[in-house]
Design a protein that fits this description.
With about 90 residues, the chain is mainly α. The chain has 4 helices and no strands. Helix 1 crosses helix 3 (about 45-60), helix 2 (about 20-40) packs across helix 4 (about 65-90) and helix 3 (about 45-60) packs antiparallel against helix 4.
Length: about 90
């Protein structure tokens, strides 16, 4: 049974949190987005997916995360910001 977008989002956030490096964070995000493209997710659904993850990452409290997790969160937020801007350009 395929994952729902919500389940996919939860798995990606967990992968981001427990990644061992910046490069691994980017690889997880890229792999997730490739998977969404392969499943022919619409542009609007993809934009919502990116926005929802971005919002969730912004809500994490740095006091409740270790240094690696916080670094992963910051890198992911920057990467998602860039992806969001690219997506906006592509749909404009």
């Amino acid at each position: 049974m395929p994952l729902s977008l919500e389940e996919y989002r939860v798995r990606l956030v967990n992968s981001i949190l427990f990644a061992a490096s910046r490069e691994e964070v980017k690889r997880f995000i890229d792999a997730a987005l490739r998977g969404l493209h392969q499943h022919k997710i619409s542009g609007d659904a993809l934009a919502n997916f990116i926005e929802n993850i971005s919002v969730e990452l912004e809500q994490f409290d740095p006091m409740n995360k270790n240094a690696q997790q916080w670094s992963n969160i910051k890198i992911a937020r920057v990467y998602f910001y860039r992806l969001k801007k690219e997506l906006e350009k592509a749909t404009a």
